[in-house]
Every structure is written in structure tokens, then in C-alpha cells.
User: Fold these one by one.
Assistant:
Number 1:
Amino acid sequence: MHAIEKILAAKAGKSSVHAGEIVNCRVDWAGINDLYYQTVKSFYEMGGERVVDPEHVVLFFDHYAPCATEKQADNHKRFRAFAREQGIRHLMDINEGVCHQVMADHGFSAPGEVIVITDSHTTTHGAFGAFGTGVGATDLAVILATGRLWFKVPEVIRINLTGKIPAGVYAKDIVLSIIGKLKADYAVYKAVEFAGPALQQLSISERMALCNMTTEMGAKTSYIQPDAITLQFLKERGRQDFTVYETDADYVYAADLTFDVSEVEPQLAAPFSVDNVQALSAYAGMHVDQAYLGSCTGGRTEDFAVAAKILAGQHIPAGTRMVMVPASKAVLAECLAKGYIQTLLAAGATLTASGCAACLGIHQGLLAADEVCLSSTNRNFPGRMGSVKGRIYLGSPASVAAAARNGVVTDPRQYLDEKGEQA
Ligand SMILES: CC(C)[C@H](C(=O)O)[C@@H](O)C(=O)O
Ligand code: SF4
């Protein structure tokens, strides 16, 4: 069996499972974000009275944080009342940040767990060796009422990463180049595992970016075998009570691919699909109206660190604006402590509240028609960040910062030395 199958088997109380089988699993973490009040309504509509395991339910106020309309505020108010009524202690209010980052910050995401959130990018938790997947309101309501949910055991595609990651190239570039080759529907309902020696060069932050983006290949879930890097991250957050499952040596993958990361250069996904990927150099010199640094893909401390290296002592030129959205309160605190935010503010960037913000066009950084945004987020569909005529290019946080520095698409490698430090 694959480690993912072992997780699902354990949660279903079975000794073995196989791809295609439907299993009914105990869910370790059920998360609801603030776009999904329908979950609460569905819970009552299906006869729910008490949430079976409120200790393992997390409510996230991230998409509307802080609220831009009265309707959003009313939603939050009803969620808070639900939390009080049901004894849900983990209410991550508007200052906490994007659900996936908050899960990581709190040490909630851990190996061997089943994590289900009303958000498609729940694949992110594969970075911890968890089975993470996104669902809609009614499925989540079933978990509230029963503590369990059914899944179809996915086939697994393994992507082996080999070679040395060049300076100025990041997980985002690697995964964009993979999606550009394999395309947006390559992994529909399959699991995508990242493996291979290059993983040793990738921190948890970078692994989260990789796993996050598998959603844009249609993946049901993602997986990275926990290692010393994972265990160290969890130790720092006080997590020790988890089970690490290992894939059997004779497990047969649905596909087994190898990518040499040493050949990857900075990439951009051009409008209007995530698999419309080219080398960044193809767009060098194109004017950028907005550089957007944030989200559950590219809004972590390391992302701010590299942006600060590129923009230290610089001034963002007139005609370009930079919006920065730390993925969570913990990320913001860390970036403040390290001086990254101060450096970026001094360069002329705007700081907005942690959360989803303009990543999906809610507030804090929307685009006008024909404006170009270079964004560290994960989607560039029409209307994703405001006007349906806004043009979003997805790239690494370093590429976002380099664009802010010059007001045009710029290769970030020229500002970094061979160690990835300020050149
Ligand atoms: C919650 C939902 C509207 C959505 C998702 O499921 O991913 C959002 O977070 C996104 O990134 O598009
Ligand atoms: S930051 Fe963006 S991609 Fe992530 S959960 Fe929020 S809206 Fe979705």
C-alpha cells in the first residue's frame, strides 16, 4: 500500500484498502472557512444537533478578513454564535490568517492525519504527510454530525525531483514548470506525491507551496513523506503525537515521473489559466501595475525574506504598486521581528491584513480592466482579482519583488547571489 492508503485504512478501521475503493474514514480535523456558512445551515437541515467532536473543528475567518460588507460581518456574527453554541474552541478570528497557514502555525497539520476543509487548497497539508482534501458545505456538515466522511481511495502519481535548485528559483517555479508540462487536468482525482533527493533543499514553507499547487492539476490530495525537516517543524510547534506511515516498496504508482530541478528557471503562468506557463524571460520588460505578495501559496516568512532582499534600499517606481498580505498573524509577527515588513514598507509597499484578501478578488488589492498583476498566488482565471479584464501572471515571491523593484517583469536572479542572498 501507499502511505496515503495506510492513512485511509487506519481511519476506516480496515487492514488494507486499494485505489478506487470507497472508504468511510474518521476525520482528524474539519475546517470551515467564512465563505461556507452554508455548512452550518446544512448541518441543521440534515438533523444535526450537537457537533460530535468540537475539539477537532476549526472555524477560519480568512476570506472576509476584515469584512468589507455588512453581509460578511453578519456571516461572521452567525459563525461566532455557532461556535459558542457548539463549544467550538478553535475559532480563528479575522486577525489569524489563511486557513492552511493557520493550521501549520498551530501545529495542527501532522503526518498520518485526515484533514478536510471547505477549501480546494487543502492539498497543502500533504507537506506534512497528511491526507488533506477540500470539500463543499454538505460534506463538511456530515463530518460535523458524524465525525466521518467517505472518500474514494485515489491512485497516486509520484513526481521525483532531482538535481540542485538554482539560486533565485523556488518551489513555485518548479511546480509551475511541472503544471505547464502536465496541464491542469493531469491529476484529476489522483494523489500527487513529491519525492526525490531535491526535497532535501525544500523547507516546509516551500513544500507547502508545492502541495498547494497540485490543486491546480486537479489533484484530490498531495503527499510528501515526512522526514527530519518535517519532524523538526512539528517539534518546534509542540507536536509529537502522530503516526508516520511509509509506502511499501512494491507499491505500483499510476505514473512515476522525474523532473530535474537544476534546469528550471523562473516561470510565469500567464492569463487565463494556471497551465499557460512560460519562462519569465518571455515577458521580461512587460509593465506591471500591481505586484501582489501573499496567499496560502506565497505569503510565508521565507517569501517575505526574499522580497526584502530584492527590495532593500529600493523605491518601487510610480505606476506600480505592491500589496503585501502575510498569510497569517504568526507570519506577520515573524516578518516584523526580522524587519522584512519594515524594509518593504520603506520601499513603498502597502501592508494589508492577513487573509485571502485580493487573492480571490474580495478586497484589498483588486485590479481594474487591463491592469497587469504579477502575483505569488495560485490562480489567474478571469475576474479572479477584480476586473474580468485584469491580467494576472503567477510567479514566485522573488519574481513579484523583482517586478515591484523595476515596475516591469524582471528576472529576480540578477539581484541574488549563488546562495540566494542579496547580490
Ligand atoms: C473557498 C473557495 C472560494 C476557494 C477554494 O476552495 O479554494 C478559494 O479559497 C480559492 O482559492 O479559490
Ligand atoms: S489565500 Fe487564496 S488560494 Fe489560499 S485559501 Fe485564500 S483565496 Fe484560496
Number 2:
Amino acid sequence: MISKLHYITQDLAHKTHAEQTEAACAGGVDWVQLRVKNQTDERVLEIALEVKRICDAHGATLIINDRVRVAKEVGAHGVHLGKTDMPSKEARRVLGAGFIIGGTANTLDDIRALEQAGVDYIGLGPFRFTETKKNLSPVLGLEGYRNILGGGVSVPVVAIGGIKHGDITAVMEAGPHGVALSSLINLAENPSASAKKVLDILAGKTA
Ligand SMILES: Cc1ncc(COP(=O)(O)OP(=O)(O)O)c(N)n1
Ligand SMILES: Cc1ncsc1CCOP(=O)(O)O
Ligand SMILES: [Mg+2]
């Protein structure tokens, strides 16, 4: 089952990926994407082993961003691949049928191609500008999600990019299965509380 909240770690000077993961899981997150940029596979593998222990302790799904080899070696549940990463069909050959493979989309054409490629979920964005990722694709806004998702998509889609607590209800009304969030949780004064607040909004407990 694909979670409604995809929590994503980020490179921060003051907090390790393991510390970020621990805080997010303490807030109830059950789906973690390890997103480490500009490090060797060997270093990402070390970090992934640490993060995997935390995910296992909390029963959380672990997805590795970008690195198919690391995902396989660490025994993660899945990998997330964008347009400049290994093609998802090739990743499927390397990883096998049981592995979760996520892909990135910015347009309906991207979504159709990913459906054909057999991905398990799609990250569609960005919703708005965000500092968390360089070289962003064009911002979609609510209208973009309504247009792209209006015709129906056969794979679960998570909205991503600059999403704040106050956006979640309206974003979900535009049709995605869930949301993917990084800085809203990692840069919060209390990351666990921020994650819990997201889950409460997704569960309809608060706006
Ligand atoms: C859930 C989700 N959606 C989209 C992305 C972006 O992936 P990508 O386009 O490969 O960019 P990087 O994250 O690798 O910088 C994602 N990571 N997760
Ligand atoms: C990885 C990624 N892909 C599109 S936007 C984005 C960053 C999401 O992070 P944030 O939730 O901090 O904007
Ligand atoms: Mg990528």
C-alpha cells in the first residue's frame, strides 16, 4: 500500500538524515524517502544502513532517492527515480517485481509514460517554488493538479514541492492520493509535531 504521506529527508548542516528520520517516525510517519545529494554511493549506503535500522524499528517503508544500487544493497523497499535518473523500466529489471519504484512527473505526458513503464507511484510537482530542490520544473499550482489529474490516473500520485500545512486540504481536493514533504517537517521547530499535524490533516481530524 502506498502511504498518503511520503516524508523525504534532506541534506542539512545541523541534522543528520538519521536524526531527521527518527523525529519524523516519532511523529507517526510510516514512509521515508532518503534523499542524499552529492555523495558517493558508498557514503549513501552508510547513511542508508543507519536510516534503515530506524525505519525497521518503526515499521516504516524505506525508499532510496536516485540510487538503485544502494536501494538493492541496503534492502530498502523501493527507489524513487526522476527524469535524469535510471529509467524505471531498467530499474525494474535490476530490482525485480516486488520492489517499489516511484517516478517523477510534471505533465500528463510524463504520467502516461510512467504508467506505461510500470511504476508503483508518481511524484507530481512542484506544487509551488521550493528551496529544497535545484532545477525545478514549472510550478503547477492547484489548477495544474486539477487539469492533470482530472482525467484519471491509474497509479497513485503524490503532490510535491513547497507544500505547507495550510495547503494540504486544497491540494488533496485536486485529486492526488497523497503528499510528499521535506522542509515542512525537517525545518520545523518541532519536526515530530509538524509530521503529526500533517497526518491529522490527511485523516480529516483538523484543517
Ligand atoms: C515523491 C517524489 N516525487 C518527486 C521527487 C523528485 O525526484 P527527482 O525529479 O529525481 O529529483 P531529486 O529528488 O532526485 O532531486 C522525489 N524525490 N520524490
Ligand atoms: C524533491 C522535490 N521534487 C520536486 S519539489 C521537491 C522538494 C520537496 O521539498 P519541500 O517539501 O521542502 O518543498
Ligand atoms: Mg532524482
Number 3:
Amino acid sequence: ALLQALKQGLPADNKAGVAVAAPAVYLAQIQAELAGSAIDVAAQDVSQHEQGAFTGENSAAMLKEFGVRYALVGHSERRQYHGETDAVVALKAQAALAKGITPIVCVGETLQEREAGQTEVVVKRQLAAVIHQVGLCVSELVVAYEPVWAIGTGKTASPEQAQEVHAVLRAQLAAATEKAGRVPLLYGGSMNAVNAAQLLAQADIDGGLVGGAALKAADFLTIIAAAQ
Ligand SMILES: O=C(CO)COP(=O)(O)O
């Protein structure tokens, strides 16, 4: 029902890239529902391994069979609950790129790290691992800044706080590629229909990685409208 409402509500002149990131078991259904629409399919994770005996993992090649165009890598919940290190996240980004899937690399600091003044150090370390791994493919990444304290908490980074970190990430990308301006930098963490426009108005915030607010089609469509 959500996908139908999104498809019907997306204006014909929509210019924002829109993708739905779902758990792997729903990807086939989502691919079928979204066929012929302007909405892309994304996975929430991807295996770091190209192939082999890794029971339970979904390789990039397998995801590709279901029309997956993007894969989140390094979402804070994967880092926190599944022990994903910067090195593993970097391998996942590389595995996705190798099969033509665009990784959406998630970075972000915890509340403790922010309060200790470590925000910049943490996000730069997380992104550096991926930049180092993917080499010349840096310009093919999407990067999402998701402060861990803002995910699902209703606490949003202020537009200024988010922009400050996005500027750091943009500069880091610019040191690695001439095409840094083309790398979409998404903000995630309690983005909603009310605060999206202000966040998206910031110079280096190109889009959103939306959780809770995307579960209501009307709210998600309002955010998409703000991203034009
Ligand atoms: O990353 C996110 C979901 O995984 C963001 O979630 P919220 O928008 O609900 O904070």
C-alpha cells in the first residue's frame, strides 16, 4: 500500500532521485511493485564477499538480480549490533560497486563522541576507510551523514550542525576526487515533513535518508517535494 501511494503521489515533474531501501526478503516484491516507476530499489546491507560459503549473506550479485540500484553500507545499526568495522564497511562498498550497485555509505557519531568533541574525527575516519578502499570510484559513492543520536529519536541535528559535518565530508571527498561536487551527501536522523526543507536548503545537504517519516506516504512525498 505504501509503494502504491508513493508511485501515485510522485509528481510527473519530480526531479529528486527516490529509492526505497527494504530488508532483503521484500526486494522481489518491491522490484515487481516499482517496475516502470521512477522509484529505485535499495538494499539495507550487502555482503562484503563477492561469492563463497557465507550462509545468510546476500552478495551484490544476488541483489543485482532483484533490480537493486543502491545498497546502504555501514548503517549505524550494522556497526553497533553486528560488529561492522570501518574496514568491513569499506569492503562492502567495494563489493557493491564491483557489481554496479551504488553504495550509500553511512557515517555518524554517537552522542558520547559528539559530547567529547570527536564528531569530525569519527566521520572522517569512517569515510577515509571507504575512500581508501574504492580508489578511483570515490565519485560513484553516495554518502549519508547520520548522527547516531538523531536516528529514530525525534532529535534532529540542526541545519547548521548537519551542514557543518557535510562541509567536512565534502572537503574530504574533494581531496580524493575532482568530482566531489557530484557525490550526493544525504542527511539522516529524524528528518521529517516539517524540518526537511530547512535541512535540504543547506549548501552541502543534497538529500535525505529517511526512516520513520518515510512510513507515511504523505510525509515522504512532502520531503521529496522539498528535495527538488
Ligand atoms: O537511518 C534511519 C533509519 O534507519 C533514519 O531513521 P529516522 O528517520 O527514523 O531517524
